[in-house]
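Tutorial, part two.
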Amino acid sequence: MIIDKPKVRGFICTNSQPEGCAANVQEQIDFVKAQGAIDGGPKNVLVIGASTGYGLASRITAAFGCQAKTLGVFFEKPGNARKPGSAGFYNSAGFHAKADAAGLYAKSINGDAFSDEIKQTTIDTIKEDLGKVDLVIYSLASPRRKDPKTGELHSSVLKPIGESYTAKNLNTDTLKIADMTIESASEDEIANTVKVMGGEDWELWIEALANAGVLADNVKTVAYTYIGDKLTWPIYGKATIGRAKEDLDRAATAINAQLKGVNGQANVAVLKALVTQSSSAIPIMPLYISILYKVMKEEGSHEGCIEQLYRLFTEGLYTSTPRLDDTNRFRMDNLELSQAVQDKVEAIWPTVTEENLFDVTDYKSYNQEFLKLFGFGIDRVDYTNEVETEVDFNLI
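Running the prediction step on this input gives:
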């Protein structure tokens, strides 16, 4: 079929373009290959949440920057003759095609990563193909999680804690700017958000892998978070998401204790604000990111997912002088949080109107990056061509 136009509803695009997704993957591969090999990098890598955003960039960096064998876990929808699949499915198909062409091992497991069944399938695959893994990336982003022990389904919310919050918000459907008030979360909502987005499942993964004996000596594991600064704290840092992300720090400490027997290391990595399927859903973030992009591009310090992840590997995971804060987190958000950048962002924030949106912010790039997540708006793709929506690759 021909898929030439995105179908956008709210903070999601309901269709995807297979060739565009593959081209997006190729651009990231090209960047990594242009930087050169990463010294001392991993050999066998498990990426939990490997199909989009930072997880996909992690897999690309490991494979094409370190020549690592990669096993990816994700929950994506394949396409059929009548309807395209999810962007993450086509991202993964594009990655597999390029990894195969480069002679790199790549397999993927499609299913609920929160479940015991998928954890066991992953362990079986590692034992059969890799023996052990020396890097485990945890990059899951989901609004819901079914507890494998109780069977209870938990749902997360995007709400402030303690009191309601009112702030300027950009409606990306209508491009209208208006104040938005979000009521504060209840204790149950906070607990459920921590259950979905906190560190418990990361711990369960490492526990299962350790008990199965598939973690190599000196194994590293990392989970991703975002902290931000004053403008985003009320809805992100000091909110339900922030409480869940704080739980990652607790989990990292627990995992480090668990990994002592193999001299392993667990860290949380703090990354910068970027256009992802997750960040698009968070109130105020589209406007904040649009301003941030303008400021950082003018300063020459802007980075996308792949630039951030390459720097995490070279300035965090695989260097003798990692960029760590006093809580043992890798800090890759240092450029975003520089005083000069934040001062400029805070100065622009109150001046933004519907009339000057495209002048004082870089909403144009924000929108382009959003559409690119789903394979649209990429110059090298001819969207008038028919594309195959049923794609096969090394999927378990």
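The chain has a mean pLDDT of 94. In part three we will examine how such features are distributed along the chain.
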